Amino acid sequence: xxxxxxxxxxxxxxxxxxDDDSIVLxxxxxxxxIEDWDSLEHINLIAAVEKEFKMxxxxxxxxxxxxxxxxxxxxxxRAKK
Amino acid sequence: xxxxxxxxxxxxxPLCLLSYAxxxxxxxxxxxxILFSLLFYAWGEPKRIVYLLLSAAVNYICGIGAGKAKxxxxxxxxxxxxxxxxxxxxxxxxxxxxxxxxxxIFGAHFPVPEIAQMIGISFYTFQVMSYxxxxxxxxxxxxxxxxxxxxxxxxxxxxxxxxxxxxxxIAAEIENRETTLQDLSYGLSRFVVGLAKKVVxxxxxxxxxxxxxGSKPEDLxxxxxxxxxIVYSLYIYFDFSGYSDMAIGxxxxxxxxxxxxxxxxxxxxxxxxxxQRWHISLGTFFRDYLMPVPVFGIRNKYLSLALVWLxxxxxxxxxxxxxxxxxxxxxxxxxxxxxxxxxxxxxPIVLRHIYSKLVIIIGYGLFYFEDFKQLGLFFRNLxxxxxxxxxSFAEQMSFYNNLFLLIAGVxxxxxxxxxxxxxxxxxxxxxxxxxxVGTVCCAVLLVLSSILLVDATTKAFLYYRF
Lengths: 81, 466
Description:
The structure holds two protein chains of two kinds.
Chain A lengths: L2 H15 L21 H15 L5 H6 L3 H11 L3
Helix pairs in contact in A: 1-2, 1-4
Chain B lengths: L5 H17 L3 H19 L4 H20 L2 H36 L14 H16 L9 H9 L1 H4 L7 H9 L5 H34 L7 H32 L17 H7 L2 H10 L11 H15 L4 H20 L1 H6 L2 H20 L3 H10 L11 H9 L1 H9 L6 H9 L4 H24 L12
């Protein structure tokens, strides 16, 4: 799966989780850019991404992810198609 | 030893500063800090210093294992560290509580271990756990020099009541640091501000708390009960944030830059914001190391929320009232999450301030009363069901007698120290006179604190026991 495909599916997940169809993701999008993205909602987001891509994040990734670009890279590397 | 004692202020600290300044190499300065830190800890816990050293040794080895060994051994190393650290806290902090509850639930008669709690165990143990996990997660390089790791574990400014300093925050400064004149000036003034918060405000406010909540809270009127708990909320803030100020100031004097632990928490507009401003180092610890744990193998925000707030509660003490206090905050954060940030922001700001302050102040009842019967009477006495009436002269007298103290307490919840900073940013010419006024104020506060310390039986910090 290439990164563009990952970003497209991630955008859908983000819009569902944060209930906001105006979200447009870029590599640099971070919790600062999405009002509801706090530490608690981050857990829901991670769970939704894991479900969408049928993969599992490691704890250090859940804790240390800085932006969407990092998330997309991990997903692109590990996701089952 | 505690910071707000004459022996610390006029013997320990000057000797430490002189010894530190007398040597120039960083390794020698580290050694001076280690020796003084061990002396500082041994002053209160002479025998239990062994456990502190053991903790440093075990986590030193585990850190190297977790960061450098083959994958399977890395997992074993981090596992050993977690078992050891949680085991230490379990034995020294929770074993009596656990056995008491097992006896109560199963009608058993196991002897309740009477282990006095170790000073600062919850702080330094959390620090070393974060270090080993960070090594495992490859966020930091394991420290190869055991003395440098020992310095991280036992550094006296943050050893016994935090902040919970991450290794990554001071790793570079352990290797190499210098104290500029600006650092020294900032560190000393920050320390004096913290000292004054503790001695001039917190200790004096505690007299009121003790008068009203300490003796017979069941006999209080409605006003006296509210008065007592509001003063308690001021007391606890100045006690704990004063300690953090002193720790951050002392750290700066020795060239370390610790992160802030408080950001004017009572200015919060909701409970989520309160916890982003109160005891920040504990909140970020749980956010980074506990929140990502899949509870029962499931990632779910509600399960994570429950885990974090149960742990926040129990971290504060081995008693059910602290558990309840954690659950209480978890419930309000759940409520705010359900309402959503956008809707919360639509509520008038005055109402949000009233709501958050009420939740915080009433919540301190759960924090203060370990006895559930007294806790129940306290809650009753806050309401019109109070049989003692609305008002008595006792609280009126206390209020008028302590009016200046109370006004100072409320004012100091605001970021007053930012005012001179903002003025000097706009008017460069005022920098020198404001700096002189600041120095004079610090000198006055130091003298005042010292006079109060001479005249008082020293009260330990509330968070000392955690």
